[in-house]
Specification:
Chain B: Residues 6-88, 139-223 form the Cysteine-rich domain. The complex is a heterodimer of chains A (283) and B (255). By secondary structure, chain A is of the alpha/beta class. Helices cover 52% and strands 8% of the residues of chain A. Chain A is built from 13 helices and seven strands. In chain B, 49% of the residues lie in helices and 11% in strands. In chain B, strands 2-1-3-4 form a four-stranded parallel beta sheet, sandwiched between helices. Chain B is globular and about 50 Å long. Classes of the chains: A alpha/beta (283), B alpha/beta (255).
Chain lengths: 283, 255
């Protein structure tokens, strides 16, 4: 049941990742008339909110944890220069290499050079807002390097030539019937009798991605946290794709904003309780 | 107690019934209400729209009007608004520090420690939930964003409403969702704002309440605008008005 001329109505890729398209009020006026989008978002949002409330309810000191997290971030920002230098020292001591980029153009150029130095012409990626913001995938494509998103929702967005619509839930604007159509038309190796059952869609993505993981020489990740004292980088994920990206390829390039820092390993204790709660709700 | 009333801009210009009811309620509970002259805006509107420099003299005026609380001239300051209370607590000192006036920042902070939103004053300071009110109507309560997320009033307004005689208090579905007002957001992003309002109005209508109440007349103004255009027959009323209503002096519900 494939359409002959599929139209996914995705948002075209912007030239400037942070400044593109119509201004918000204009774009919103148009999107608000999209009944399918409104329905998809309304359903997903109410489901996620209910799940989040349940998950947060399991943590007795949730509000205290949030205050502690805010205080840790404020302290870190107040000591950012020395903490960043400590991070560089500790990453270097453990065999990593730290590159500094002043802006998106510098970051994209550094990553491109690193990939080219390996001789690879494709990379696998674990969901990263930093690389979304700097337009890394588009830059790599312009340099002849294919970037494959491995987070399920990011994969859906990428296959549909679309833009992510939500930080935690990038494909929240798509329903499962649309996802099935996207997989059948764009994935290349989706089973012919694919249904819109969520488990079947996830399995099709898993098989598709497994082949990418096994062949990839280079992975690009973001970072949820970087620990200055230990040089540890942390990515929190729920699909297994992060572990694959971080461990299988020979080269790992992590793009992180300087604000992802925490001073000590114990600080992760706070954030690793805070972050997974709402994230679990979106899974 | 001697309590200073800050009327708020929206209470002064559009909905005087909120500060009036606040004064009536507190006097009925045996307190003395004073209205410091020279009071004006708390500066919230300026700060929320990015006019922090322009907010400085406004904050200066607010602190000047209410700092007699520091000398014991009155015991507390009450605001019938969650968002104005939030501005006093979280914005005023910041505005002063930005203007390089550390002395005023400290005075603003000191005044803010004696400043309470109405439900906070009643429950936390005066230790009362049954205020002797009587209001035989079907009512639903909308927790406004700033009262809920900025100053964390929690269930204090509901605890007060539950004790009101004759009231039929019904839960509002998805109560914690924003009504879409958001100050100038409603003007700058009218389509999105009214879409959010449509959801809020649907939720209010589903309760079959006669009255929707809240601790902020700004949000109520927005919700009331939506309801009136639908001829929904649901009226907006500030929490203070319901709590001020008694058997002997009922608040008029007919529009």
């Amino acid at each position: 049941m494939t359409t002959t001329n599929p139209v996914f109505l995705g948002v075209p890729h912007p030239r400037e990742p942070l400044r593109w398209g119509d201004p918000f009020p204009t774009a919103a006026r148009e999107a608000l008339d999209d009944a399918q989008l409104r329905r998809n978002l309304g359903h997903a949002t109410s489901t996620i909110r209910a799940k989040r409330a349940r998950v947060v309810g399991e943590v007795p000191d949730w509000e205290d944890l949030r205050d502690a997290g805010a205080a840790l971030k404020a302290t870190t920002l107040a000591h950012l220069p020395e903490l960043l230098e400590r991070l560089e020292e500790n990453v270097t001591a453990r065999g990593g290499v730290v590159h500094w980029a002043r802006d998106a153009a510098e970051a994209n150029a550094i990553v491109t050079d690193l990939v080219k130095a390996t001789g690879a012409d494709e990379v696998v990626k674990v969901k990263s807002m930093a690389t979304q913001e700097i337009g890394l995938d588009e830059h790599l494509a312009s340099e002849g390097i294919a970037a494959f998103e491995t987070d399920l929702a990011e994969l859906i967005v990428q296959l549909a030539d679309d833009q992510p619509s939500h930080i935690l839930v990038p494909a929240i604007h798509r329903n499962r019937a649309e996802i099935r159509e996207i997989f059948l038309e764009r994935m290349g190796d989706a089973p012919a009798h694919l249904t819109d059952d969520p488990a079947a869609l996830a399995e099709a993505a898993r098989l598709h991605l497994r082949r990418k993981f096994l062949s990839a020489k280079v992975a690009v990740s973001g970072a949820n946290f970087a620990v200055a004292d230990t040089g540890t980088l942390a990515v929190v994920e729920s699909e297994g794709n992060g572990r694959m990206c971080l461990t299988l390829p020979q080269t790992l390039i992590t793009v992180m904003g300087i604000e992802k820092l925490v001073p000590s390993f114990e600080d992760l204790e706070v954030f690793l309780q805070l972050l997974p709660g709402p994230r679990r709700a979106s899974a | 107690m001697r309590i200073a009333l800050a009327a708020t801009c929206i209470g002064d210009a559009l909905f005087p019934q909120a500060p009036q009811a606040t004064a009536r309620l507190l006097e009925r509970l045996g307190h003395e209400v004073v209205f410091p002259p020279g009071q004006a805006c708390c500066g919230q509107m300026h700060v929320n729209t990015g006019y922090l420099d322009e907010a400085y003299p406004v904050v200066q005026n607010h602190v000047r009007a209410f700092e007699p609380v520091l000398d014991g001239e009155f015991d507390a300051v009450v605001l019938p608004s969650g968002s104005c209370t939030g501005a006093v607590r979280h914005q005023q000192a910041m505005v002063c520090r930005r203007a390089g006036d550390e002395a005023l920042a400290r005075r603003a902070d000191a005044v803010s420690r004696h400043t309470y939103e109405l439900s906070e004053l009643l429950v936390d300071v005066l230790g009362v939930t049954d205020v002797g009110a009587h209001f035989p109507h079907r009512v639903t309560y909308h927790p406004t964003c700033h009262s809920l997320r900025m100053i964390h009033v929690g269930d204090k307004p509901l605890r007060l409403l539950r004790e009101v005689g004759g009231i039929d208090l019904v839960e509002l579905p998805d109560a914690e969702s924003c009504c879409g007002f958001g100050g100038t957001f409603a003007l700058k992003n009218a389509p999105t704002s009214t879409t959010m309002l449509a959801d809020k109005v649907s939720a209010v209508k589903s309760t079959h309440a006669e009255i929707v109440t809240a601790g902020d007349y700004s949000c109520l103004m927005h919700i009331g605008g939506g309801l009136s255009r639908l001829r929904a027959g649901v009226r907006i009323m500030h929490l203070a008005e319901i709590l001020a209503s008694t058997v002997d002096e009922p608040v008029e519900v007919a529009a």
